[in-house]
Amino acid sequence: MAQFWKPGTEKPRLLDDEEGGVLFLSSSFSSSSSGYGYASIERQRQRLPVYKYRTSILYLVESHATSIVVGETGSGKTTQIPQYLKEAGWADGGRVIACTQPRRLAVQAVASRVAEEMGVKVGEEVGYTIRFEDISNPDATRIKFLTDGVLLREMMDDPLLTKYSVIMVDEAHERSISTDILLGLLKKIQKRRPQLRLLISSATIEAKAMSDFFQSSKRRQVSEGEELRPRLEPAILSVEGRGFNVQIHYVEDPVQDYVQAAVSTVLLIHDQEPAGDILVFLTGQDDIDVAVKMLTEEARSNGKNSSGLIILPLYSGLSRAEQDLVFSPTPKGKRKVVISTNIAETSLTLEGIVYVVDSGFSKQRFYNPISDIENLVVAPISKASARQRAGRAGRLRPGKCYRLYTEEYFVNEMSAQGIPEIQRSNLVSCVIQLKALGIDNILGFDWPASPSPESMIRALEVLYSLGVLDDDAKLTSPVGFQVAEIPLEPMISKMILASNELGCSEEIITIAAVLSIQSIWFSGRGVQKELDEAKLRFAAAEGDHVTFLNIYKGFLQSGKSSQWCHRNFINYHAMKKVMEIREQLKRIALRLGIVLKSCERDMQSVRKAVTAGFFANACRLEAFSHSGMYKTIRGSQEVYIHPSSVLFRVNPRWVIYHSLVSTDRQYMRNVISIDSSWLTEAAPHFYQQQQQQLNPIIH
Ligand SMILES: Nc1ncnc2c1ncn2[C@@H]1O[C@H](COP(=O)(O)OP(=O)(O)OP(=O)(O)O)[C@@H](O)[C@H]1O
User: Fold this and answer.
1) Which atom of ligand 1 is closest in space to residue 80's alpha carbon?
2) pLDDT < 50 stretches in the chain
3) Is the pTM of this model over 0.90?
4) Are residues 320 and 437 in the same domain?
5) Which atom of ligand 1 is nearest to the CA of 202?
6) Structure ipTM
């Protein structure tokens, strides 16, 4: 079991006090808040640290084109600043104030909270938009929360974002690809629309670097009558003060197994600490499922340590209803344990959370443009993330954060900020978005952090071979424009378009929905044999994609039963999410004129449609390889079929994969067998047949 420094000794520190040793006292507010007292919402708002800065913030927004606001987690940036702007008149005359978030869950939660504070219904004066869900009213919505990706999509219809008077880019430290593209484009828009105000906010952003980015725009010649224009150099405001104290505890020695350590820590808190819910940060659906199972079994076996625990997973692959459970009040005498990925890391306030357990890891993308391989890897988080995680406690009363790494590691080894996603990702989706927005010179685009030219060129090549870009690197019509319109990876979008011609759109839309979530299988330790047996019941000789179709059919025939899922080691929540995404994709397909049609048993059409999207991921089994070694056609990389695939050990000669994961080797996940002749048929720009040998044209 992980050993922590005990509270009361000199070791526990308060949030952010890792270097100096000076203990901060809680700032201006320390008593009641929603659910814990009788203060009116107005009084609660006035107690937030940001309130003292209301006038300064409004002055800066008035006088500067760009303002950067840095303030502790919980100081009130996200919920309050949009309201201040509205109160000051920035939403008058039909204008709208936008506030972007990197994550969907945060968008929904923050919109509900702000609507509640303003005493209005979500979808009216306060609204939100996330991919596939628009809860706003163009005539009534004055404050709109949205993901940064959605705001980018809005630019396709309205390139200058004319309806917005102020755009607040919140949690900018996360530096998601969409945030970076957005920052680059907003800087461009400001040159054309000087009235637009930008407000960049975060608890942990490197304000100076961000300011330099916005500063670097060339000074415009100010002509007569322009004195009222805002100043171009960005203003930086630091909001002092914090919510309630969060005591930080570190482990004394590094832990071997962070899932096991997280479970033991939850039991330790439950046993020794007063009432209050617990939020645990793990990395993904797989280790969350394992932790939920370990805790549930502990509770079932009536371990005295676990009675009264309500254990809830939280990750993006869960259905909306399942995610909403984490917001429901905890019944008296119970303790809620939410086990989450980093989707709960920023902007969320979960009312009862008093304790946070931070594994120190998250799943992150890493892309190698030389091999053209992108992996999702469990990697250490940054200090900025660690602070955000700790900040989920102490929002409504004092809290504690248990870090499953040593203080020495945090201080000396953890990086201050993560690497921006744009520098460690495949850029296919990013390039198509910029192209759709009419940005032709992508290499010359003004990025907050430049992606590597190799990654850009790789992306341009793939889009060209998908038929999305033409010889002049412009979007093709109609394919390029249609692919850009579907809010999915371009390869999946292309697969959907191809299914229309092949008469299998019903099947391909199901496959696209399954590929959009991490896994539909239940993951658990010690149940591998049962899981493998369950897979065999659905396994299709063609591969995983066709197996998904069998599972989906079985799920429908069972009447969407949770018991059926349980018996077959299928994650019921994930299946519900698949249903949700499938419905949304159907709507988009119809809008694009795709005819919904089933190919019944003709799985060749399905495999050809997958090939039309994913031909770049084709691999050939090495002749005489007894170890199941494949080589990618494009980069001659050594890869293997993942043990979770139904084609593991089957090893067909030619396969296509959806994604790669790297552990001791590069493993292909979600694999389908193909006929090599389909590759030249689907991508004549990409492959050529030379003397019985299939070769990539683009290396
Ligand atoms: N749903 C909610 N229920 C109760 N109180 C809430 C809720 N949302 C926010 N609050 C209160 O408002 C405070 C400020 O939240 P807000 O999200 O605006 O802070 P922030 O500075 O943006 O923090 P972060 O950087 O963590 O997103 C919280 O600490 C909490 O006290």
Assistant:
1) 18
2) 6-38, 218-222, 224-227
3) no
4) no
5) 25
6) 0.97
Q: Is 491 helix (H, G, I), strand (E, B) or coil?
A: helix
Q: How many domains does the chain have?
A: 4
Residue in 423, 115, 407 with CA at minimum distance from that of residue 252: 407
C-alpha–C-alpha distance, residues 683 and 688, integer Å:
9
Q: Report the separation in Å between the CA atom of 505 and the middle of ligand 1, taken as the mean of its atom positions.
A: 44
- Residue 610: both structure tokens together: 């997958």
Q: Distance, CA 318 to ligand 1 centroid (Å)?
A: 24
| List of residues 6+ apart from 267 with CB closer than 8 A | 295, 298, 303, 305, 306
Question: 116 C-alpha to center of ligand 1: Å?
Answer: 13
Same domain, residue pair 415 and 283: yes
Measured from CB, residues less than 6 Å from any atom of ligand 1 are 33-34, 48, 71, 73-80, 113, 203, 243, 346-347, 349, 351, 391, 395-396
Ligand 1: distance of its center to the CA of 79 in Å?
6
DSSP β-ladder status, 143-147 and 126-130 = parallel
What is the per-residue pLDDT across 203-254, written as a single tens digit (0 to 9) for each?
877 888 888 898 865 444 445 444 456 777 889 999 987 778 999 999 999 9
Domain encompassing residue 670: 612-682
The CATH number covering residue 452 comes to 1.10.10
Strand partners, 356: 279, 401
For 616-650, how does the pLDDT look when each residue is reduced to its tens digit (9 = 90+)? 999 999 876 678 999 998 888 899 999 889 999 89
Residue 570 resides in a domain:
no
